[in-house]
Amino acid sequence: MFTRLRLQLSPMFIKLLPGIGGFIAILLCSLLGDLARTSLLMAPFGASCVIAFALPQSPLAQPRSLIGGHVLSTLVGLCALTAFGVHAWSLALAVGAAITLMQLTRTLHPPAGADPLLVMLTGAGWSFLLTPVLLGAALIVLVACGYHRATKAHYPTKWW
């Protein structure tokens, strides 16, 4: 049914739809975080929304990659921060290790490559792994599922 409707929509409006999805995801992360008195947001989630809403068929947009990539990369950053502190070489090592780990576990998600830097440069604690990382990423995936169901797009193509 939406495909018939989509044909009647202007090309400009269709290009706005992924932005609406990203708006909803970030708004919900912000509002629910405020309600729970915790943060469910971090800068890399903006880039995750680009992939989840504008490129839903991409392997990089799938829940395994979006959630797993952020969790594993954040874990690498927390381990590097704890073990080595913040140095040029430890920042580089953490990003390189995060990329390698995402490749090995099939959880590659480019925005998550920034997570070790974010963790290390802000001195984030271990609770950062749960909030905002795990809960925020899971919320983005849930919003993407609802959004793509409403727009009749097939997402996710696979859960795991």
UniProtKB/TrEMBL annotation:
Residues 16-156 form the HPP transmembrane region domain. The chain crosses the membrane at residues 12-33, 39-55, 75-104, 124-147. The keyword Nucleotide-binding does not apply. It comes from the Bacteria. Keywords: Membrane, Transmembrane, Transmembrane helix. InterPro entries: HPP (IPR007065), TM_HPP (IPR058581). The keyword Ubl conjugation does not apply. This is HPP transmembrane region domain-containing protein. It comes from Paenibacillus allorhizoplanae.
